[in-house]
Write a structure and sequence with these properties.
By secondary structure, the chain is α+β, with helices and mostly antiparallel strands. The protein contains eight helices and 13 strands. It folds into three domains: 119 residues, Helix Hairpins (Orthogonal Bundle); 69 residues, Sandwich (HSP40/DNAj peptide-binding domain); 91 residues, HSP40/DNAj peptide-binding domain, CATH 2.60.260.20. A four-stranded mixed β-sheet has the order 8-9-13-12. A hairpin with an 8-residue loop joins β1 and β2. α2 packs antiparallel against α3.
Length: 321
């Protein structure tokens, strides 16, 4: 392990308070944790930070380190013992770096066999340090992430809600409740921390990454945070104007169709579109679609033909006329 000054490793002064040391440790763990930082030296940096914190967060170890530095103190536990014999390492996972025999003082008449039994017994029982003052074990690898696609309705995507999801994790199958935020879009991803595969080494579980697939609506369509509805009206309503009912996600509204309305003309209602969790909302648009009547009687058709002969040609003056 690196022999850099522990205060330098954590980036704190030698008179730093326990709270300052804890805050520095928390920041550096987030920065160098191998699950988040893919740099080649991330694991080494992470272990270095852990070693520094283990020594400076313990009042006895810190007092000993301030007095003796990286040497063996009078109680047998310095920040590391220089020179000497071979170092033997063991960890419950079978990987190097659990604790070091050289970190333990065998002075004082203690029986070596009983000390080994105590150390190894604690490590097998899940002890973090593998001994009263040994080094902390390296963090166990986290579980695998799980990717899954979840289908939700158009209405749930707009309003938000809860969706049950049956999921297999490890050897177990369970049903979890997924919270859908209002305004979520098709193809968006949700990450559920700790809902992935469990760690085989006893570490934290992976994450569940959900891809959202939003179903179609029978008459709404969404563009950004705006919602559109095709609103059919008759020729008479288009000519004379009318007041008609139209559905919105927040309930039915009355819309005034202006006289002379044409297909494609939009009637807008502000704030009646998709409402997001941050308070923003889109608008609602009713798009007029003038319906040509079918099944007219002979008299009605004759009337329409006669009317058409008296109307101005709407294409007059256009480039292709």
């Amino acid at each position: 392990m690196s022999q850099r000054d522990y205060y330098d490793v954590l980036g704190v002064s030698r008179d730093a308070s326990a709270d300052e040391i804890k805050k520095a440790h928390r920041r550096l763990v987030r920065q160098w944790h191998p699950d988040r930082n893919k740099a080649p030296d991330a694991a080494t940096k992470f272990a270095e930070v852990q070693e520094a914190y283990d020594n400076l967060s313990d009042p006895e170890k810190r007092k000993n380190y301030d007095r003796f530095g990286h040497t063996r103190g009078p109680a047998g536990f310095g920040a590391g013992a220089p020179g000497g014999g071979r170092t033997y390492s063991w960890s419950p996972s079978g990987q190097p770096g659990g604790f070091n025999v050289e970190d333990v003082d065998f002075g004082g008449g203690g029986d070596v066999g009983s000390i080994f039994e105590e150390l190894f017994g604690r490590a097998r029982r899940g002890g973090a340090a593998g001994g009263r003052r040994g080094r902390s074990a390296a963090p166990a690898a986290r579980g695998q992430d799980i990717s899954h696609t979840i289908d939700i309705t158009f209405d749930t995507a707009i309003r938000g809600g809860k969706e049950p999801l049956r999921l297999s994790r490890g050897s177990q199958t369970e049903t979890i409740e997924v919270t859908i935020p209002p305004g979520i879009t098709d193809g968006a991803k949700l990450r559920l921390r700790g809902k992935g595969q469990p760690s085989p080494m006893g570490g934290e579980s992976g994450d569940l990454i959900l891809t959202i697939r939003v179903g179609k609506h029978p008459y709404y369509r969404r563009e950004g945070n705006d919602i559109y509805l095709d609103l059919p009206i008759t020729i008479a309503e288009a000519v004379e104007g009318a007041t008609v009912q139209a559905p919105t996600p927040q309930g039915a509204v009355s819309l005034k169709v202006p006289p002379g309305a044409n297909t494609g003309q939009k009637l807008r209602i502000t704030g009646r579109g998709v409402k997001l969790s941050d308070g923003r909302s889109g608008d609602f648009y009713a798009v007029i679609a003038v319906q040509t009547p079918k099944g007219l009687s002979a008299d009605d058709r004759a009337f329409i033909v006669n009317l058409g002969e008296r109307l101005a040609n709407p294409r007059r003056g256009l480039p292709w006329e």
